[in-house]
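Example (one chain per record):
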Amino acid sequence: MSQRIRLANESDAAALHSLLQQAYAPLVAQDIHFTITRASVAEVREVIRSESTYVLENESGLTATLTTRFPWTVAKNHLAPWPFVHWFAVAEQAKGQGLGREIIRYVEETFLRDTLKAPAVYLATAIRHPWLTDLYLRRGYQPFHTAINPLGVELVYLCKILDQQAFADQEHKPIIRPLAELRAGLTA
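Predicted structure:
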């Protein structure tokens, strides 16, 4: 079986929207709502433009996906200075084949740790989700915050350290200086 992991492009928006809607539909029946369940194809296309959406593709089409939002993304709530992963999904017919594990590992290790040199990554999932929190805990994520999403679902935020030394170094220095402070340095 031939497969590859690649960055999604705008022409993937409809297929990606379909994969996400199908993957998240069982959660809606359990009264667990994520904003993707109400997103349009145009909104998916915009996320593809502004974030890094990886897809695992095989002869069946798009089979798994994971998106990374960056701390510098405009108009998003960021709790931490690291990339945020979301929109994790595996097609129903591909579950149990390790494809979810494969795309998560690719994004965490190849893209975030090895390419971007990110010291850590974080995500959020519904506290009431029947198995995702446990999956992330097994993958080395640790909870650090809770909140309620815009649709009223209680979330747990989890962080995974990708590079222990870089993470430790980052803890001891300021991450972001206000733009006004940087501009003041230009006029001094």
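Caption: The two ends are 62 Å apart (CA to CA).
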